[in-house]
Amino acid sequence: METNFKTAARLTVIVVLLSIIASAGGLTWDELYRDSESIKAAWFVNDLVTLF
Predict the structure, then answer these.
(1) Phi, psi (5° rounding) for residue 36?
(2) Residue 26 and residue 42: Cα distance in Å, rounded?
């Protein structure tokens, strides 16, 4: 049973790290989203909320 928790903990860490990388990319890379300004603003806020 303990190995299941270790696997889950490792997968959780991987998902969190990938989320941080994706959110940081969305916040710092200006030309990542090629949508209208209102949609870009929504994606920016989405990345900000995901990061925190």
Answers:
(1) -70, 165
(2) 11
| Residue 23: closest CA among 47, 43, 49 | 47
Q: Which two tokens stand for residue 15?
A: 């998902």
pLDDT value at position 34? 87
- Write out the two tokens for 3: 């190995």
pLDDT at 1: 52
Query: Whole-prediction pTM value?
Result: 0.72
Q: Which value, in Å, is the radius of gyration of the alpha carbons in the chain? A: 15
Full 3-state SS string of 2-27? HHHHHHHHHHHHHHHHHHHHHHHHHH
